[in-house]
Amino acid sequence: MDRRHFFESSAVASTGALVGMSGHAAAAQTVKTPFEVAGVYIPVVDSDEFFPVRRIYCIGRNYAAHAREMGSDPTREPPFFFQKPTDAVQFVPQGTVADHPYPTLTKNYHYEAELVAALHKGGRNIAVADALNHVYGYTLGLDMTRRDLQRALGDEKKPWEIGKSFDHSAPLGAIHKVGQTGHFSQGAIWLKVNGQLKQNANLNQMIWSVAEQISKLSEAFELFPGDIIFSGTPENVGPVVRGDVIDMHIDGLPNLSVKIV
Ligand code: MN
């Protein structure tokens, strides 16, 4: 099908699917599709709007003590980025304990508590001084990890995709607009399993601040509205099993809770 015919067909489409034609174009077109693919949206606190998720970026080894526990030297190794698929999001409503499925293929399933920044502006080569103007809001999230697969694949110098980027691997809460919370440069971040404190750190221990993460990330990728960034986890990551309840906290945000089922 040539391009002109494609757009003519679009004009008479009856299914009503709304898509961005180039993935990031401002203009959307109605196209006829054989089935519908669900978008991924996160509720915005005190709003009737939902935050549309474009991409999920995650930063690795952004707290020195966690870098050391993962076997690397934080003074020599710069942080790095990876992605989770957008539909890895598991939205967890405030005040609830969401059932989180224990994934297949792992015997060592780990939590990683992280601050998450949500962008409403994109760009390339964003300056650190301008970076926080790109943040729409924040939430807290879990970078759930099949640690045994991540390690084994890393040892074999293969992509650790299935260790990090699987279904439901990104539980997170509703987005709080910056106007309500301000930006997060310090404050407690902790995680409990069955009431027992496991991770306990301060956001000011990040090696790269959120502003610096946005700036560095925008050197590698053009960022767009809808991108979210998991900002890395502090030390003392560890395993959970079915029946465990995770409670996660960041000062200034409501707690996030999931039960492993
Ligand atoms: Mn992580």
CATH structural class of the largest domain: Alpha Beta
Q: Tell me which ligands are bound.
A: manganese (II) ion
Low-confidence runs of at least 5 consecutive residues: 1-26
* Overall 3D form: globular
> Percent of residues in beta strands?
25-35%
CATH topology of the largest domain: Fumarylacetoacetate hydrolase, domain 2
Lateral arrangement of strands in the main beta sheet: 6-5-17-10-11-14
Q: End-to-end distance, in Å?
A: 47 Å
- Spell the H/E element sequence: HEEEEEHEEEEEHEEHHEEHEEHEEEE
How much helix, percentage-wise, in residues?
10-25%
Q: How many structural domains in the coordinates?
A: 2
Instruction: Specify the CATH homologous superfamily of the largest domain.
Output: Fumarylacetoacetase-like, C-terminal domain
Helical run tally: 7
> How many DSSP-defined strands?
20
Query: What's the alpha carbon Rg, rounded to whole Å?
Result: 19 Å
Mean pLDDT: 89
Task: Please state the second-level CATH architecture of the largest domain.
Answer: Alpha-Beta Complex
> Which structural category fits the helices and strands?
alpha+beta
Give a quick account of the main beta sheet: strands, pairing sense, barrel closure.
6 strands, mixed
